[in-house]
Amino acid sequence: MAYKLRATGIAANCTMCVAVDPDTLTIKDFSSSAVTADMIVHQDITAGIGSQGWNGKTRHYFELQSGKYVGFGTAKPRWEFNVEGQRRTIVWIGKTGGYQARVIGKDSSNYVAACSLASGGNTMPQIYGMGYGSSGATGGNASFSAGDNAIFGFSLVHGVSGIAYSALHDAEAMTSVVQAAPPTSGGGAFDVAYVGRRNDSTGQDLDKIHAVLIFDDDLSEAEWDSLRDDWFSVLLEPASAAATIILSPDPVSVVNGGTQQITITRSTAAPAGGGVTYNLVSDTPASATVPATVNMAEGQTTVTFNVTGVSVGSATITATNAADSGETDSITANVVTVRKLKLLAHIDALGATAVKGAVFAAPSGGALVGAKVGEFTGGAFKAVAESGQAPLEVAVGDFGGSALTTADTPVCVWEGTSAATSALGNAVAIGSVGPHECTVIEV
């Protein structure tokens, strides 16, 4: 099952969510497809993806390897913390490989880790640079031990003393420590270069990382505790399958100077908030034209629009969701001259008027098979038989612009009022003997 970042709750302010996608077992940034596409992940780390228990749940992790890390290419997550009043939260969740778990880094002067990488000791967690200058800031707690399932990080407000949070996965509550000093001005705006590493030259513990998160907000203790309980369910939700559309009929014949209705059928109902607007395009407007847009109303799965024949030829008609270019489909519209076809049906139909009928595919044992070719109304069978059959002339357009030709041998089912001279008598419904195989003769 595919997952995506939620658009509500604290997830709405999550600007980086680097974790394992359980659907593909790959590492991605759930907040940015561009960052994911440009992510640099060593193959040994990908090979080390696994799962383990977290507070009674099973969650995936990626395991760091010696000298191998997760980095970013041209598209990088952004750390912005250099203007008074800015609110930020940074979170590490996983199983520690040692006491020096690294969270993110730009270089040796800007990083977040489980402790001071210079002195260790009672400095857990540690933020260095990142808008705090060379003095950094710590939570003042004793460091984790190797093998701890833990969560730690900072909730920060620029110009105000921040709060350091930490806890084991099954703790009853978060441990919080108010920092002694607020961040210094400036220096805290840069692109994040690494996850699980300070820079590209120093070592790192071989942690099993569940998630590394950045929020454009200072999370409360209760929000931290929700992440400790089950960060995955708080931040991610199943991604619904992408909607698809089908245009029909395809191909479609349009009489020159006339119109033909096209139906857009969507795999899921159009969403609330205005439905779906589709951009319509004809690649050859000299032959066929379409409206610029059509809207599928909220809750509906179909909508129609007309193709207009301008001159004999062909055009590709495309409909595309104005908000999602991946939701698209095309058909071929063939613009034809007006012509008539003659159907030769059962002789009992001679003289019948006010005829309406439907033409199906070729018969199989007398049964109607295949899709309906088209329908016609208001026709009249001639009074004089041809080759022992009753002739009926209909325009191609009467068949909905279908491709019925003289090469077809369709079945025709009709009803109508017979003429007084008909063998069936006046005002008697015709076609009562069932489907009739017809011969198509072009007029």
CATH architecture of the largest domain: Sandwich
Gyration radius, in Å: 35 Å
State the helicity in percent bands: under 10%
Classified by CATH, the class of the largest domain is Mainly Beta
Unreliable parts: 419-434
Q: What is the β-strand count?
A: 36
End-to-end distance: 58 Å
Question: In one word, what is the shape?
Answer: elongated
- Figure out the total of helices: 3
How many structural domains in the coordinates? 3
CATH topology of the largest domain: Jelly Rolls
The largest β sheet comes out as:
9 strands, antiparallel
Descriptive overview:
With 443 residues, the protein is mainly beta. The chain is built from three helices and 36 strands. Strand 15 (160-168) and strand 16 form a beta hairpin. Mean pLDDT is 82; it is low at 419-434.
Offer a concise description of the structure.
By secondary structure, the protein is mainly beta. 6% of the residues lie in helices and 45% in strands.
Any key phrases for this structure?
3 domains; Jelly Rolls; mainly beta; 3 helices; 443 residues; Immunoglobulin-like
Topology:
Blueprint: E1 3-5, E2 14-21, E3 26-29, H1 33-37, E4 39-41, H2 43-47, E5 50-54, E6 57-63, E7 70-72, E8 78-80, E9 87-95, E10 102-107, E11 110-113, E12 124-128, E13 137-141, E14 149-157, E15 160-168, E16 175-178, E17 189-191, E18 194-195, E19 208-215, H3 221-235, E20 236-238, E21 245-248, E22 252-255, E23 259-266, E24 276-282, E25 288-289, E26 293-296, E27 302-309, E28 313-321, E29 324-336, E30 340-345, E31 353-360, E32 374-379, E33 390-395, E34 411-417, E35 436-437, E36 439-442
Parallel strand pairs: 22-29
Antiparallel strand pairs: 1-20, 2-3, 2-19, 4-7, 5-6, 6-19, 7-18, 8-17, 9-14, 9-19, 10-11, 10-18, 11-12, 12-13, 14-15, 15-16, 21-23, 23-27, 24-26, 24-28, 25-27, 28-29, 30-33, 30-36, 31-32, 31-34, 34-35
